[in-house]
Amino acid sequence: MMKSQNKNKIFIMPFSGDELDHAESRRTPEELEFFIKQDNAQCLCIYNGSVAINSAGGLKLIHPSKLIGKKINDPGPIFLGIRNNTPIFSASLVEPGEIKEDLTFEDLRKASKFLSPQEMSVAGRAKSLLDWHINNRFCSKCGQITQPSSGGIKRECNRCSTEHFPRVNPVVIMLIISNNKVLLGRGKGWPEGAMSALAGFISPGETIEEAVKRETYEEVGIKIKNAKYIFSQPWPWPSQLMIGMICEAESEDLNINTDEIEEAKWFKKDQVKAVYDNSGDHFLRLPKFTIAHHLLRNWIDS
After folding, report:
1. How far, in Å, CA of 131 to CA of 124, rounded?
2. Residue 26: which residues within 8 A CB-CB, separation 6 or more?
3. For the CA atoms of the chain, what is the radius of gyration?
């Protein structure tokens, strides 16, 4: 739950807001076995990055027992946490047809257009964790294959005893403002008209504010000041924390680095508002499940 910077509106950022207790202190093998055998336990199935959807357009959850004897990708069922006394798991299926359920799968980006923020939070957490397991099956220290542990929140190496934990990559995404205008850019390979806030990964030894300054200068060649935090968003492609910022440009004269982005333009506030009101076509409106959409909405309402 977050407040809009300017109107004190309460809203839930997509991929956040689910009151899921991760239960990280209750993950012994005995406790996990207890949770997965509960009559009310639920499991979100994922197949090739797509999530199971029910006929009403929400997440389809099944009892974990229906996965017994079925082909499941490493690490097997992972324990996401507990919500309202209900243990929730997730698993990556090899053959969805093995499950005696009417399962329909939808790409998470497409599903995000109709899932609730809370459902997106569960699906996003599941996808990020399962993707991490796929990409971290071997110990980065000695090369030995690792084993999932603690219900899926870490992997352990039996050879060198190194523990591996899911990583989250911090990314700054910033609205750059000047004289009631905002700077938006089009990434490499994006379709015509697809514009968004500039963004980039935070480098080691760098503060959030320093990353905003560096990324802005690298991409469009201008200096900024007064960088301020607005809000953040977990982003499960594959596992970023998008840190929403706003800052002021010291100049509007752009020197675009075409190795970084395709183009960048200044847009007046009334142009952005027209796009959001469906009365203008200055650029393609960003999907509501993106933090950039909400950064612009927040700025329009200021």
Report:
1. 10
2. 35
3. 22
Write out the two tokens for 33.
Answer: 């076995």
Do the beta carbons of residue 151 and residue 239 sit within 8 Å?
Answer: no
Whether the predicted pLDDT of 27 surpasses 90: yes
Chain-centre distance of CA 227, in angstroms?
A: 23
Q: Which domains does the chain have, with CATH numbers?
A: 2-134 (3.90.79), 169-300 (3.90.79.10)
Which among 139, 295, 278, 170 is positioned nearest to 234, based on CA atoms?
170
- 254-268, pLDDT tens digit by residue? 999 999 999 999 999
Note whether 295 and 175 are within 8 A (CB). yes
Mean pLDDT of 53-82: 96
**What DSSP element (H or E) covers 261?**
strand 261-268
DSSP 12: -
Report DSSP letters for 263-296, one per residue.
EEEEEEHHHHHHHHTTS--SSBPPPTTSHHHHHH
8 pLDDT tier (thresholds 50, 70, 90): low
